[in-house]
């Protein structure tokens, strides 16, 4: 899933109809209660683990949105510096690629 300030939790195949300039600080941004409803409506709380690939602000928004679920949130990018984050991404992609070859 992708988290958008304007659309909330979106599937990767969701087509955004046009450009938009909305951040989570914007008055047009979806707020906690709306995002929490999306988690419930879309059944996202059924997942045991949810990995948030974003900074501290996004992690807090996702935590609040999933607060009624039993999902365990993981946030590997909170804390490390940018170079370390890039290393984590490369390692993740290598691991996923090698798992795909084994299937």
UniProtKB/TrEMBL annotation:
It comes from the Bacteria. Residues 2-90 form the DUF6884 domain. InterPro entries: DUF6884 (IPR049251). This is DUF6884 domain-containing protein. It comes from Candidatus Cryosericum hinesii.
């Amino acid at each position: 899933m992708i988290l958008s300030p304007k659309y909330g939790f979106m599937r990767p195949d969701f087509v955004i109809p046009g450009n938009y300039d909305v951040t989570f600080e914007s008055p047009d941004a979806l707020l906690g209660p709306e995002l929490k409803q999306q988690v419930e409506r879309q059944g996202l709380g059924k997942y045991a683990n949810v990995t948030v690939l974003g900074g501290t602000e996004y992690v807090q928004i996702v935590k609040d949105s999933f607060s009624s679920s039993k999902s365990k949130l993981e946030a590997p990018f909170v804390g490390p510096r940018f170079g370390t984050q890039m290393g984590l991404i490369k390692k993740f992609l290598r691991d996923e690629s090698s798992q795909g070859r084994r299937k």
